Amino acid sequence: MKALIPTVASCVALAVAGCGGDDSSSGSTESTGATTAKSTAAAKKTKPGKVFVSPGPPPKKLVVDDLEKGSGAVAKTGDQVTVQYVGLDYKNGKEFDTSWGREPFVFELGGGLVIAGWDKGVEGMRVGGRRQLTVPPDLAYGAAGSPPTIAPNSTLVFVIDLLAVE
Length: 166
Known about the structure:
This protein has one domain (about 5-20, about 35-165): Roll (Chitinase A, domain 3). It has three helices and six strands; from the N terminus they run ααββββαββ. The chain has helices at about 5-15, 35-45, 115-120; strands spanning about 65-70, 80-90, 95-100, 105-110, 130-135, 155-165.
């Protein structure tokens, strides 16, 4: 756990440092493919601030809340998707992981490369959208957890920004 704190602190510091700078990219509307779409979508988003975690007992089923709908391509099983995310423990609201401050995360949707809650919860999102997933243990890390950061039978909350679909 002590080793995780400097990592999270570094990610937060990088995310904050990345919020400044000039806005020279706003003058160009020319698209050069998926790379430009990723960087344009990423430039419009910032790491979520306070993430809402419902009071009371955790849900038994996946809860999907669109915080922003998005207007781009729809993510479907088999697509390669690029996302930014932040993950929190439902029980205590503490952040355990984030992609903010490093490269966006890329994975094949429905390929079993991520927890089942992500495969189910990201499907149907549109590029430019922001979605909050509340993932019960059976669609996350289950009874094993993911020590030392995720306890056994933990419900997890993720806020995911969909940057690109290929």
